[in-house]
UniProtKB/TrEMBL annotation:
Residues 41-95 form the Peptidoglycan binding-like domain. Residues 118-216 form the Cell wall hydrolase SleB domain. The lineage of its organism: Bacteria, Bacillati, Bacillota, Bacilli, Bacillales. Pfam families: Hydrolase_2 (PF07486), PG_binding_1 (PF01471). This is Spore cortex-lytic enzyme. GO terms for molecular function: hydrolase activity. It comes from Paenibacillus albilobatus. It comes from the Bacteria.
Length: 217
């Protein structure tokens, strides 16, 4: 009965997040053009995303001042966007591809904790790196919601362990993964060779072994 309840809970979580994911994508399409003088939640979101990458060190106050503008320009130069200091469609696309919002960072920490809490810190970051690699690949969904809750993508989602509360280490690992720390050599898959039963995963080309997980492409 307990296992059955876990499965029901997991199904509810998947359906709820997929719904929210669609809503977030619709909202992203209609995202405002942000510029000096703008003041709203979207500005705060930009500030948070830039802060996770180390471009911004100011307050998350939702105010588009000189500090935010210069941070946006630094991000634009680094990621090949016209450095005009405003956040238009092109900059939004880059931000959403290479960074996560606060709520998305929570998803990252939860999938890391539920999938790799028994692994070393490097092994936990590695799981987060696989998630980021999938987001940035044309072969997978382009949002963390789409990647994490893709059918049968992660065992912890399927069996309900995703509902566990992550610890501080998982949040730190999530931040490092988003910042580009990738010990997996750009892998898109991982599995435990001692417990894996899916024949397909054994057809993937191994890249590196970290702890109990074998990473592959």
């Amino acid at each position: 009965m307990k296992a059955y309840k876990w499965k029901l809970f997991a199904i509810f979580i998947v359906l709820f997040v997929v719904y929210c994911s669609g809503w977030e994508e619709d909202k992203a399409e209609a995202a405002s053009i942000l510029k000096p003088g703008s003041e709203n939640r979207e500005v705060r979101d930009v500030q948070y995303r830039l802060k996770t990458l180390g471009f911004y060190d100011g307050a998350l106050d939702g105010k588009y001042g000189p500090g935010t503008s210069s941070s946006v320009m630094a991000f634009q130069k680094e990621y090949g966007v016209n450095p005009d200091g405003t956040v238009g469609p092109a900059t939004w696309r880059k931000l959403k591809k290479y960074t996560l919002s606060e709520s998305e960072m929570e998803i990252m920490a939860k999938i890391i904790y539920s999938e790799a809490r028994g692994e070393s810190y490097k092994g936990q970051v590695a799981v987060g790196a696989v998630v980021m690699n999938r987001i940035q690949s044309d072969d997978f969904p382009d949002t963390i919601q789409g990647v994490v809750f893709q059918k049968n993508a992660f065992t912890a989602v399927s069996d309900g362990q995703y509902g566990m509360k992550p610890n501080r280490t998982a949040y730190r690992a999530a931040l490092d993964a988003v910042r580009g720390f990738d010990p997996t050599r750009n892998s898109h898959y991982y599995y435990n060779p001692k417990t894996a039963t899916d024949k397909w995963i054994w057809t993937r080309t191994p890249t590196i072994k970290i702890g109990r997980h074998l990473f592959a492409n």
